[in-house]
Amino acid sequence: MESYGRYVFPDPGLFTHPATATKYIESWLRVREVWLMRMAQESSLALSSQHWRTFLASDNTKPEKGETKAARRRQEVLDLLLPSAEMYPGVANRSGSMGPIVWQGREYPSGVFPPGNVVREILWELYELNFIHELQSLDRRACQDLDLSSADKLFERQLEISRCFHTSSFRRVSIPSKNYGLADNDNDTRLWFVTALVFIVKSWKGEKPVILARISSSADLSLACTIELEKAVTKYYCQQFFNYFGRAAQVPHRLFSSNN
């Protein structure tokens, strides 16, 4: 997400309109694995919200004919989204396919809105993936002394950022069995990840909220201080993201209610 105002993954907000939700979810699931594959190889991929909307709304089973503006726009998006034969010679370039859609190894019928729990998982993953990539992109812009030319320094910084996430959820996100990391229901457990994020943003350029500057560890923080710290770092992160990228940040969401 190096480009201003762009999204590495679709904005989950695009999937909330009842008239288009079924189509958008199906379009995303048909390209999801290919896009994840590309993301693993090409770190700078990102599309504008309009490009994502154009792709998700397109009926890829009925290619448009002629040289209309809509056809050219759709082809432009497909060229951006789908892998090139030169870079991925073993991958079939199918922009649209018939048959069921697949989520987490299970098939669901085309043209039918998936079960509610499936939709929640799909949107949760999009929020999580966007946040992971947005945090890294913002850190590269905002970090005070990060040497972008040093692969070793970038790797060390990535390790520090990974502490903001639950084990093994940083690179390849999997659907959890409970709320983890920055979305954990337990205040004490969540504080560990909040503190990790605080240490990341403390190295960013510019002034910080006082509470962020004075925190050196999460030990012995009162509940009130914990809540204040979480609110402060959340507000600061979202404001910094807007300052650098000109749009609202995507943030972690809870997949399960607090009663689970």
Give the CA-CA distance, first to last residue.
34 Å
Major sheet characteristics: 2 strands, antiparallel
- Structural domain tally: 2
Q: What number is the mean pLDDT?
A: 86
Topology:
Blueprint (H helix, E strand, L loop, with lengths): L5 E2 L13 H21 L5 E2 H9 L11 H13 L19 E3 L2 E3 L7 H27 L8 H12 L24 H15 L8 H5 L8 H23 L15
Antiparallel strand pairs: 1-2, 3-4
Helix pairs in contact: 1-2, 2-3, 4-8, 6-8
Structural commentary:
Helix 6 packs across helix 8. The chain starts with 5 loop residues before the first strand and ends in a 15-residue tail after the last helix. The longest helix is centred in the middle third of the chain and has 27 residues. It folds into two domains: 108 residues, no CATH class; 129 residues, no CATH class. The protein has eight helices and four strands, in the order βαβααββααααα. It is mostly helical.
Can you give keywords for this protein?
mainly alpha; single chain; two-stranded antiparallel ribbon
Write a brief caption for the model.
With 260 residues, this protein is mainly α.
